[in-house]
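User: tokens in, sequence out, please.
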């Protein structure tokens, strides 16, 4: 499968085995209730994959350690990469890992920044089978206590939404960069159900089940809702051909931020955008620029 073909497929369709999709279709047909429970389990279960070649340099040359985040009683794996007086936190997306933003990390390392990233619970080398956005947010706050304050925070996809929520909840940083970040959680569940060959009824049942399970409306974590309480200077990057998160989400988040800049790319999709030289140069320039 070519890179161009992969860019046209949502990540779930790339990583989920065909038999899972068959079960999803079957359960949707016979019982939307059972399908919604099956979908919820899938929704909270990240997929692991072999380390890509482009991430091996960061993996090899970083200091790694497994630590417990007390507030969630879950372990994460922390990566320390480079040295410098100023520190940048990188937050990967769903089914990603601490080296996912390795090309961005390498560029910032060359600029003299120290990089902190992590495998979220049940991602990469971190133990567990289940994860969710609150785990990401709590992990960000924990890392801020240990390694912060951060000069900047950079988040991809779910990592961007988690970063917005962490700042809304009090995380202090000078700059924020979010890449391919989704806005509305309900829309995420519908897109997920569609990718899993399920329908909106199953998505709605799944969303209600998750709300009841965690005692909170998951839409409270939506990007644009968090953005209303974010004053940090923010760079929003999104590709027009992103099939995992529609570009409209970037505009919706941008509309709610008080100090933001929007960079819309073409032809990079949801994942290749992380390695694009022009995008990386823009991120470096944005972070190193002095605030007026």
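Assistant: Sequence out:
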């Amino acid at each position: 499968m070519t890179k161009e073909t992969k860019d046209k497929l949502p990540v779930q369709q790339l990583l989920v085995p065909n038999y899972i999709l068959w079960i999803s279709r079957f359960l949707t047909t016979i019982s939307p209730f059972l399908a919604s429970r099956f979908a919820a389990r899938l929704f909270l279960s990240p997929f692991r994959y072999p380390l890509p070649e482009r991430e091996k340099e960061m993996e090899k040359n970083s200091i790694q350690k497994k630590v417990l985040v007390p507030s969630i009683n879950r372990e994460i794996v922390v990566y320390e990469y480079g040295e410098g007086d100023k520190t940048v936190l990188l937050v990967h997306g769903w089914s990603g890992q601490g080296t996912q933003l390795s090309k961005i990390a390498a560029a910032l390392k060359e600029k003299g920044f120290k990089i902190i990233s992590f495998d979220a619970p049940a991602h990469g080398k971190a133990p567990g089978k289940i994860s969710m956005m609150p785990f990401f947010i709590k992990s960000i706050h924990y890392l801020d206590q240990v390694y912060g304050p951060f000069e900047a925070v950079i988040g991809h996809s779910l990592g961007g939404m988690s970063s917005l929520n962490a700042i809304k909840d009090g995380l202090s940083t000078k700059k924020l960069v979010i890449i391919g970040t989704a806005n509305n959680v309900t829309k995420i569940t519908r897109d997920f159900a569609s990718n899993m060959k399920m329908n909106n009824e199953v998505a709605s049942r799944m969303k209600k089940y998750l709300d009841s399970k965690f005692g909170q409306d998951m839409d409270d974590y939506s990007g644009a809702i968090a953005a209303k309480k974010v004053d940090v200077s923010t760079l929003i990057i999104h590709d027009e051909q992103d099939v995992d998160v529609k570009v409209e989400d970037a505009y919706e988040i941008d509309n709610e931020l008080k100090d933001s800049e929007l960079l819309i790319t073409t032809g990079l999709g949801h994942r290749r955008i992380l390695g694009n030289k022009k995008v990386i140069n823009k991120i470096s320039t944005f972070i190193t620029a002095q605030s007026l």
